[in-house]
């Protein structure tokens, strides 16, 4: 029987469906019986998804700074 | 609003490689912050900005030769990592991937009793999480705040994998580290952020 700590160690690969079958079954059995680990896995799944939604767009100022830097250094003609 | 799919848009890539200025601006808008985060992880806050600016000049010059064997995103990351490495060679520093200092991850491990059962189980997340009440903007601010507290190497791997969606193989290639190393860092990063968010949920502030 896996401990809760071991379940959290496998949780990343469990969510990515990358665990070998026997280990996957072990984690699944533990989750059936342990609400704390179920909560961990559920909230971790949400968290990973939330990272993917983080806005990472640059501001207009940042864009124009790069543009003027780049335009100031045209490559030598081929 | 700029769409993510623009990066996969063939016509847009054609324009970009033909030197279209608007397409280049789109690319900068989409990728500048990501590149800055990676650069910061490698060279530190003080010169990260300069490294990324130099990387953009390299991108501009190399763009006509971009062969699309990797995604544009991965190609840009490679350029910024190379730029940062060159800088590190001058300043003789390097990211520590075999670091024993695990940052806030210890806090996560401390939540287990010696038999490996939860001693401090996670609370139900009512502000974050599946039924959370934070709006998109507040949520993003709060997550960014927690990410800022991660150790830099953990942050970098989390940004590349979970935020940017790079494959493990691409990250290994980019950073020249083993996949098991990347997986360990990612696990620690996620568990650390989990612990911080869980703490916020328990104490009510972000």
Model description:
The complex is a heterodimer of chains A (78) and B (206). The N and C termini of chain A lie far apart (67 Å). Chain A has helices at residues 4-15, 21-33, 35-52, 60-71. Chain A has a domain at 4-54: Arc Repressor Mutant, subunit A (Orthogonal Bundle), CATH 1.10.10. Chain A is an all-alpha fold and 78 residues long. Chain A contains 4 helices and no strands. By secondary structure, chain B is mainly α. Chain B folds into 2 domains: 4-91, Orthogonal Bundle (Rna Polymerase Sigma Factor, Chain: A), CATH 1.10.1740.10; 105-203, Arc Repressor Mutant, subunit A (Orthogonal Bundle), CATH 1.10.10.10. Helix content of chain B is 64%, strand content 0%. Chain B is globular and about 60 Å long. Chain A binds chain B through residues 3-6, 8-9, 12-13, 36-37, 39-40, 42-44, 46-48, 50-58, 62-63, 65-67, 69-70, 73, 75, and chain B through 2, 21, 24-25, 28-34, 53, 56-57, 60-61, 108-109, 112, 115-118, 121-122, 124-125, 128-130, 136, 139-140, 143-144, 158, 162-163, 165, 183, 186-187, 190-191, 193-194, 197-198.
Write out key terms for the chains shown.
heterodimer; A: 78 residues; mainly alpha; Arc Repressor Mutant, subunit A; 71% helix; B: 206 residues; Rna Polymerase Sigma Factor, Chain: A; 2 domains; 64% helix; 0% strand
What's a quick, concise take on this entry?
The complex is a heterodimer of chains A (78) and B (206). Helix content of chain A is 71%, strand content 0%. Chain A is an all-alpha fold and 78 residues long.
SSE inventory with pairings:
The complex is a heterodimer of chains A (78) and B (206).
Chain A: H1 4-15, H2 21-33, H3 35-52, H4 60-71
Helix pairs in contact in A: 1-2, 1-3, 2-3
Chain B: H1 10-17, H2 21-43, H3 45-62, H4 72-91, H5 105-109, H6 136-148, H7 152-163, H8 168-175, H9 179-203
Helix pairs in contact in B: 1-2, 2-3, 2-4, 2-7, 3-4, 7-9
């Amino acid at each position: 029987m896996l401990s809760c700590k071991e379940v959290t160690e496998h949780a990343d690969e469990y969510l990515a469906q990358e665990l070998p079958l026997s280990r996957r079954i072990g984690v699944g059995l533990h989750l059936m019986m342990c609400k704390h680990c179920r909560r961990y896995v559920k909230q971790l799944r949400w968290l990973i998804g939330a990272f993917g939604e983080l806005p990472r767009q640059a501001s207009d100022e940042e864009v124009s700074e790069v543009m003027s830097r780049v335009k100031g250094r045209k490559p030598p003609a081929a | 609003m700029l769409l993510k799919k623009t990066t996969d848009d063939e016509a847009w890539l054609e324009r970009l490689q033909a030197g279209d200025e608007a397409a280049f601006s789109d690319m900068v808008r989409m990728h500048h912050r990501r590149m800055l985060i990676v650069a910061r992880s490698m060279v530190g806050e003080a010169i990260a900005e300069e490294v990324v600016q130099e990387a953009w000049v390299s991108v501009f010059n190399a763009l006509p030769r971009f062969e699309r064997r990797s995604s544009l995103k991965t190609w840009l990351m490679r350029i910024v990592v190379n730029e940062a490495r060159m800088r590190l060679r001058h300043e003789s520093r390097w990211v520590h991937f075999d670091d024993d200092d695990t940052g806030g991850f210890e806090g996560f491990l401390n939540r287990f009793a010696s038999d490996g059962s939860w001693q401090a189980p996670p609370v139900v997340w009512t502000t974050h999480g599946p039924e959370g009440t934070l709006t998109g903007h507040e949520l993003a601010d709060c997550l960014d705040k927690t990410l800022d507290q991660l150790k830099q190497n953990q942050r970098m791997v989390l940004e590349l994998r979970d935020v940017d969606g790079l494959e493990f193989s691409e990250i290994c290639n980019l950073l020249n580290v083993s996949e098991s190393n990347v997986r360990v860092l990612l696990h620690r990063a996620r568990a650390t952020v989990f612990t911080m968010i869980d703490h916020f949920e328990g104490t009510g502030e972000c």
